[in-house]
What we know:
alpha+beta
Amino acid sequence: MRDGLTGLTPDRRPGPEKMTITKNTDDQQQQILLDWTAKQGRILTDEGKATEYYCSERGFPFALSELPHYHLERGETHQVFHRWAAAATQSPIVGAWTRPLFIGKWEHSTNNEEIVYNIQTSSLFIDLRIPTCKPVSRWEKLLGSDSNEHIRSSRQVIESMSDEDLRLYARQHAFAGYAVISQEKNNQMNNLPLCTRHHCIDWNYVSGKPRPRPNKWFIEGKSDGKSPFNVWKEWSYATDQNGQCYYWERWERIDGDDFGKGLRLAMRRKGKRKQVSCKKEDVDAILVAVGDHFNFIVGRQYNDNAHTRYRDANNTAELVDSSLQQGDRDTAISYLSSFGGHGTISSGWKVDCALQSWQHGLSVFDCLQCNNEDVKVGSTGDACTSWEVVIGDDFWEVYECSLCRDGLQQLLLSPKKSRL
C-alpha cells in the first residue's frame, strides 16, 4: 500500500531505517516543500559563500573545463564523455547509494526529508532527490481514468496542475552525467580520491546560469576490512574561512547492488533510427544499473530562451516562480518536462520511485517510450564502448557493461522477475 506522500511502499525505501512522517498541517508541509530547494542550496553553498572559496589565492584553483556545465554548454558531452568512458578505470564508489545525512553550517537534511537514489558506475551516474512532503495523492487524482496512457497523461497531469502545484512540483532534483575520479597529491584530506562530476542532464540547470564552481569533492570510505566499503563521506573540496569542509554528506549502500561487483551498465540515448521520422529533436536520456538497481532520466523538451526573460532565476524553482508570476505557464511547464526514476531489474524493470509519481509501477521502457520487445546489440569492436543498442526506434550508446553482448541483449529483453 502506498503512503500519501511519495507513493513508495515502505519496505522499498532506501536506508537502514524506515522513514517516519511528521504530522504537519497542509500549510506547514507546503512551506517546508517550497523551501526545500533553497535549503538544499544553503547547505551546499555555505549560505552562498562557496564560490568565494574556490580561488588560487586560497589554494583551490580550478580549470573552466572542471565546471559541471562546461561541456553541456559547449554541446560536446556525447563526444567527451564517450571518450572518457573508453579509458575509464574502476571507481571506488560504484554502487547504489542512499543519503541519510547532508549537513553544512547550521542546517542539515536527512532521509526523512527526501528520498535519494544515487547510482554510480565507473562512468555515468544518475542522482535522484525527491522530497517526502510532495502532495502525490493530489496530483495522481489529476491523472483521471486514463492512467495506462502514461505518456500523454504525464503532460496532461502537469498542465492540469494549479500554479501553486507547479511551484511545489518544481521542488525536487535530479541530475546525471559523468564522474571523473582523480588523485591530488598532498591534499589537506590525506590524499583521499577526488570525484569531479560533469552534468549533461540537470533538473536545476537554467541556460545562461551555469554553476560557477566545480562539483568536486573528496571520498572517504569506512572500511570494515572488506572491499569495497558500504558507507562513505563526501567532503567539500574547498574549505571555509576556518579551514573546514563547508559541507559533507553521508552515503550508505543499498542492499541489492552486489557491492558494485556484479552487473554494471551505463547507456545513453544517441537518437532515433534514421528511417523513423521524428518531428521533435532527440531528447537526451540515460539508463544506469548496478546489481539489481537502476536509475533512468530524460532531459527537458523545450525551446529555451527563458534565460533572456528571467535573468534573476538561478535554478528551475526560481524560474518557475518567476514565469508563473508573469502568467507564463508554458515556460514553467517546459522546464518541468524532465523526468526520471528508480527501480529494480528483478521486478521486471518496474519503476518504484519517480519524479513523476504516476509512473510508479510502470516499466522503465514504457517511461522511456521505447519498445524492449525489439532489442539488438551491434558493435564495431570488442570493447563495450563500441557497442550500439537499438531498443525499438531508439539508438543507445554503451558507456560501460559487465556483460557480453548477448547477455546485454537478453537482460534488456527479459521482463521476467530474474537477474542475470
